[in-house]
Design goal:
This protein is mostly helical and 130 residues long. It has four helices and no strands.
Amino acid sequence: MSNFVRSLRLWFAPEHIREEGDTPDYRFSLANERTFLAWLRTALALIGGGFAVDQFLPELRWGWRIGLALALLAAGVLCSLRAVNHWVRCERAMRRGEDLPVGRFPTVLSLVVAVVALAMVVVVLFGWEG
């Protein structure tokens, strides 16, 4: 079974993580959960921002409004999925005594948010009508 499929199964049955390796210090598991919750808060903020752009900027040209809203909503969805994936990968690595996993997602998310923020700066500087 591929690593991805195994990780995906652990999303819905996290008790099976206990079958691997040794139990890590609880402080590390709790820190992993706090990181998971921070990712979820970020996802909720991005989703809320996407809805806010769509609902509170009706004067903004349709293409701009939908584009910015969808970028924020998509980032929120990806962030929430990444949260659970990262939690599982970190928990498995701690149990196995391996290095914690690294990824490019934080960089990609930062770039998406920066692009949306720059687009919003353009909108503010040049007005809602474009």
